[in-house]
């Protein structure tokens, strides 16, 4: 049974951490108008209230001057400032879970609606909302009551709540008979929220989840592995993806193999050390398996259980490609020694495939090579062929990414693939 069937959210300071883009754009307006830029504490007050009213109150401008200041502010904000933003960690999965539970979700923001919608679309959370409401550009004072009424779209206030970070959100919700839920992780303090009548206060997104979804277990996260021959560009793409997902409100863990935890990192140093070129193939494979067993137990399983999105640079497929085929140890041997790793399987594996010669040139133009990267052409050929077989055997899990393109073009495909996975 849902605690609230209708939930309205403020935007800035509740869903998104937007202060940097707003305050930098305010400072830009002050400078362009020849006014002394105030201290950060004053700039922070511009986050939340309508812009014209804020310039009138905090800069001492007339309404006409404040409207001009708002126009100057938007020169920067409309181009840069709106993107200097990110969802708070945990917001995206919270919205997804609320929607899956059948909640009606709305945004009631004092920001111009054109920017509210642009931000919601860009950061990927518009899909969860039934109503997105903001003010008109020329509005001087936002009436939160009107915004809430419009976002409710005729729905009853019974079982409805308003979530926000400022006193305006709490006061309007209480006046209209909605439950007022304050979030102190935004731009208002716990004291401000309590004084303005908040029924409940969350100090973090995880606490907000407990208020909105009491007793509902956290949904498992996702495990995405990145595979390919050395020099294919997968590590660059993994870190680009991690930053994008964090901007969109996901709790992301980046890890690697061999490595990812203390014991596994020590094994990594040993197995990749160029001074150990005489290491037997069996020893190498067993070290990789030992590292992976510890990594799975200490890092991967706990992180996915907590709802994190785990991005891993190589996983079990690498051992089949490099040790089973590259070292010619056979699939059965690798499968047997990696039994502990079967406790988890990637939800998606992105396999980066490019021109072999181009990848080889890219690899050799970089830093000093490790003991795996210095192997000859026949070894590399066997690795490539193994990856082809892995994709052919599990095409639903293993998706090929063409790495014979620019970083931007490759990343576009990575984003499209992962967006389809996590919804």
Description:
It is a single chain. By secondary structure, the chain is of the alpha/beta class. The chain contains 18 helices and eleven strands. The strands form two sheets. It has a six-stranded parallel beta sheet, with helices on both faces. Strand 5 (179-183), helix 9 (190-195) and strand 6 form a beta-alpha-beta unit. The chain is elongated.
Structure described in brief:
With 423 residues, the protein is α/β, with parallel strands linked by helices. It contains 18 helices and eleven strands. The model has no long low-confidence stretch (mean pLDDT 93).
Instruction: Compute the number of helices.
Output: 18
SSE class = alpha/beta
- The largest sheet has its strands arranged as 3-2-1-4-5-6
Share of helix, binned: 40-55%
Low-pLDDT regions: none
Largest sheet: 6 strands, parallel
